[in-house]
Amino acid sequence: SNVVFVNNLPPSFSSHDVEKLLGGRTNVSKVTMLETKQGATRGQARADLSSVGALIAALDKNGLRVDGHFVSIHVFNPSRHSRVSEKPTTVEVRGVSPDTSNRQIEQEVVSGKASAPIRVHRSRQGDVVFVVMKKSDAQQAVDILHGCSIDGRVLSARIAEANADTFNADVSAPKPTRASAMVEPAPTLRAAASAMVPRKAAAKRPSKKVALSATKPTAIPLNTDSTNVAGTKSNSDFRQLFLESNKNNIGDVE
């Protein structure tokens, strides 16, 4: 691409000065001045050139001395100068016609001399389009799209709020309330474990109480009350009682 990176510029240089340095509007289509997080100038700029000839002419000026500064000009390498930590910004465009494609929105941004969007997607209803741009070009895209007319619709554009950059975002979907969340309590660990057992297998499997009752008989407590004969008599006593109760019968037999 015909893009150059200009370094070591004088602090007083503006985008117009950089454009003039590189040959004027005939050679330069866009100039982006790079700034610090505080908004101060860094003495660096990125310039989009119109042709290969303009690129060669700009590279010939590498090392030129301007206001006591030796300006360096070289081909722009995005991997060297892009900020990895910088998050893209989403431009929210409303009032879009269903007949308008995402490609038309993208072409409208590019024709306004803004950089190409990272991606373009729309809501489920189709009337809201989200244009994801570089942070430095987001405001320019807003200026291009706001008030623009496409397919008979006048668009309105603004910087989207946080978390608006979601695919197929449903902006009208109601949020769950606390009352609706309390209707069905969260499943417990035991319920989650039982839910993993197939229904047929769970129906055939005996319960825990039934399994224990089959292997462990119920213990009968001993009653040591003196009124209970079973608790006070021994085997020999029962034998003697049996003989006495059958004594008459035994005598009859003899």
UniProtKB/TrEMBL annotation:
It comes from the Eukaryota. PROSITE patterns: RRM (PS50102). Coiled coil: none annotated. One of its GO terms (molecular function) is RNA binding. Keywords: RNA-binding. The keyword Mitochondrion does not apply. Residues 2-78 form the RRM domain. The keyword tRNA processing does not apply. This is RRM domain-containing protein. The lineage of its organism: Eukaryota, Fungi, Fungi incertae sedis, Zoopagomycota, Kickxellomycotina.
